[in-house]
Amino acid sequence: MHIKKLVLDDFKSFGRETTIPFYDDFTVVTGPNGSGKSNIIDAVLFALGLARTRGIRAEKLTDLIYNPGHADEASEAAGPREASVTVVLDNEDRRLSRSQVVNAAGSDDVGDVDEVTVRRRVKETEENHYSYYYLNGRSVNLSDVRDLLAQAGITPEGYNVVMQGDVTEIINMTPSERRSIVDEIAGVAEFDEKKADAFEELETVEERIDEADLRIGEKEDRLDQLADERETALEYQSLKEERAEFESYLKAAELEDKRSELAGVEKTVEAREQDLADAEAALAERQDQVDELDADHETLTREIERKGEDEQVRLRSEIEETKGEIARLEGEIEAAEERIAEAESDRREAFVALDRKEERVEEIAEEKRSVKVERASVAGELEEKREALAEIEAEIDAVDAEYDELKAELRSLEDRQRELESERADRQREKDGLLDEARRRSSELDDRRAELAETTERLPDLRAELSDLASELDIAVAAGVRIEGVELRGRDVSAGRGFQQ
C-alpha cells in the first residue's frame, strides 16, 4: 500500500485544486525555499489525522485555509471559506480488506476498494469552523479513520512519515529508544499495547467477577434469610391454621354446651311456668273457696243472730275453724305467691342468661369471622413472600447468567492473551532474526568498507603499474612483437585505453 495521489484544494499555499501523483518506487518533490514543499507533508498529516494543528505549523484549523493576501481575491472569496485535502491510497495488495473498509465507513456503499480515499475538509463560517472526514465518499469520524489506518500499520505514533530533524533525533537516541522504534516498526509495540489492553480488560473483568461474586454472596445471604423467613412464615401459618381449627372446635363445643344449657334453662322456665300456672290455678281455687267461706260466714252470722246463743257458740267455733282454715289457706297462698315470685325471678334470670348466651354466640361468630379475615391476610402475606422469593430467585438466575458470561469472556480474553503472547513471541523471533540479519549486513558492510579503503589506498600504485604496463605495451605494439601467441595491435589504453587477445 502506498499513496497514489494527493489532491489539495485551497489548502495553505495551494489556492486552486492541485493534484500531485506519487509513483510506486520513489517520488521526489523539489523546488526553491517557500514554494510549498513542506505543505505537501502537512496536507498528508492533515488528511490522515496523524498530527495535531501545531504539528502542521498552524495555530488553528482555519489557518490552513488558503489566504490570498490581497483584496481582489479576498472579495471574491467572501462567505464561507473552506479547504480540503484528499489522499488516495493504492490498495491493490488488499492490505485493507473490503470488510474493514465497510466497517470503518459504516456502509456497504464504498465502491471498489482497490483505492481507499480519505478526504478531510475544514470549513469556516461567521460563527464557527467545522472539520469533516470522508472515507470513500462516506462521512466518518476521526476515530474511524485512525482505526482503519492502524490496521494497515499507519499510526500517529509510528514512523510512516519522517519529518525534518527525525533522522538526527534517531541518531542521538539511546539504544533502548532505538529499540522502541524498531519494536514500533516491526509491530511488536502494537502487540505490547494490545497485551497491556488485554491485561487491563482482564483486570476489569476480574473486578466485575469479584463484584458479581460479592453480589451473588449478598443474594445468597438474602436468599438464606428469606428461606428462614419462609420456613418461619410457613410454620406460623401452619400453627395458626391449627390454632384456628382447634379454636373452631372449641367454639363449636362451647356453642353446643351453651345450646344444651339453653335448652335446659328453657325446660326449667317451662317447668316453672307450669308450676306458676298450677299455683295460680290453686290460688284461684283457694280464692273461690275463701269466697265461698266468706259467703258461708255471712250466712252463719245471720243464722247466729237468728238462733240462740248455744247455736251461736257452736257457730263461733265453726267460724274459728273456718278462720283457721282461711289462715292456713292464706299461708299456702303466700307460699304459692313466693314460689311464683321465685319462678318469675328464675325466669328473668333464665332470660338474662339466654341473652348472655346469645351475646356469647355472637362474639364467637365475630371471632370466627376475624379468624377468617386474619387467615386471608396471612395467605396474602405468604403469597407476597412467595412472589418476592421468586423475584430474588430470578435475579439470582440473572446474576448467574451474567457470571457465566463474564467467565466466558474471561476465558476468551485469556485465549486472546495467549494468542497475543504467541504472536508476540513470533514477532520477537522475527525481530531477532531481523536484528541478526542487520548485524550480519552491518558486518559485511564494514568488510566491504575495509576492502574499499584498502583498494582506495592501493589505487595510486595500481594506476602507476597500469601506466608502466601501458608504456611497455605501446613499445611492444610498435615493435610488432608476439607474446605467447598473442598478437598485439595498437589500441588506445590510457583514459579509456584497453587491450584484447
Describe this structure in words.
This protein is an alpha+beta fold. The protein is rod-shaped. The chain has two domains: 2-155, Rossmann fold, CATH 3.40.50.300; 213-411, Helix Hairpins. Strand 7 and strand 8 form a beta hairpin. It has a six-stranded antiparallel sheet with strand order 2-1-3-4-5-6. A two-stranded antiparallel ribbon has the order 7-8. The protein starts with a strand and ends in a 14-residue tail after the last strand. Helix 3 runs antiparallel to helix 4 and helix 7 runs antiparallel to helix 8. It is 69% helix and 9% strand.
Count of DSSP H/I helices: 8
Rg over CA atoms: 65 Å
CATH top-level class of the largest domain: Mainly Alpha
CATH architecture assignment of the largest domain: Orthogonal Bundle
Largest sheet: 6 strands, antiparallel
Poorly predicted runs: 481-501
| Neighbour order of strands in the largest sheet | 2-1-3-4-5-6
Q: Can you give the helix content as a percent range?
A: 55-70%
Query: Which class of secondary structure composition applies to the elements?
Result: alpha+beta
Q: Which sequence of SSEs, written as H and E, runs from N to C?
A: EEHHEHEEEHHHHHEE
| Approximate strand percentage | 5-15%
CATH topology tier name of the largest domain = Helix Hairpins
Number of domain modules:
2
Q: How many E strands?
A: 8
Q: For the record, give the distance between the C-alpha atoms at the N and C termini, rounded to a whole number.
A: 53 Å
In round numbers, the mean pLDDT is 79
Coarse shape = rod-shaped
